[in-house]
Amino acid sequence: MQSEKGSEMRHFDEIYDIAAHRKGGPDALEALLSTPRSKAELRAIPDDRWLSEMARCLFQAGFNWKVINAKWPGFEAGFDGFDPARVGFYHDDDIDRLLSDRDIVRNGAKIAAVIANARFVLDLAAKHGSAAAFFAEWPGADHIGLLQLLSKSGARLGGTTGQRMLRNMGKDGFILSPDVSARLVAEGVVDKPPTSKRDMAATQAAFNTWAEQSGRGLTQISQVLAYSV
């Protein structure tokens, strides 16, 4: 099934057929695909929810997700509902309070990252009216640009952490999971899981091509690629 190294990557329809065969047919595959939120729906999400999801994803990174989810009400209480205007101005007393809070995971570096991301959200809001407006309007054809911005300007939002945050919020985009990366390698798009600027650019170009071929968004293309492996 795999393309020969250096050959032209498959048309999206061919990859879709591979995924559908693996999952029991087109209807079964379609039932597994998610639909991202519209721009209007993304804009309507309060900025505290963007900060909350940034925090959840960075605390989940390298940790048991079930534990983080079970403790999440404690996180919401401890971080004042993730109001960026409050969290962004936390001082040493707030950090000490959180480090002694048994209702959260007391990781000092990640607590500091949440505070830094609150300031990031506030900066986006100051420039664009709201962080939600910024994320809603970012074009899918340059999704890697958004990921690079999260990695550079956010705290601990690089790699799949930022990718999963965007997916969870309903922003149309890809997640470079091991399965998606394996399909990209099989199609000759990259030689290894993409991390370099060159490989990320090649990945974006491939997704843009598949989007033109299929009329689908990045989220569903990403999921089809994953299910094809």
Overview of this protein structure:
With about 230 residues, the chain is mainly alpha-helical. It is built from 15 helices and no strands. The chain has helices at about 10-25, 25-30, 40-45, 45-60, 65-70, 70-80, 85, 90-100, 110-130, 130-135, 145-155, 160-170, 180-185, 195-215, 220-225. Helix 4 runs antiparallel to helix 9 (about 110-130). The model is unreliable at about 1-5 (pLDDT under 50).
Strand content: under 5%
Strand segment tally: 0
Averaged pLDDT:
96
Q: Globular, elongated, flat, extended or rod-shaped: what is the shape?
A: elongated
Please report the distance between the alpha carbons of the first and last residues. 10 Å
Oligomeric nature of the chains = single chain
Low-confidence region ranges: 1-6
Largest sheet: none
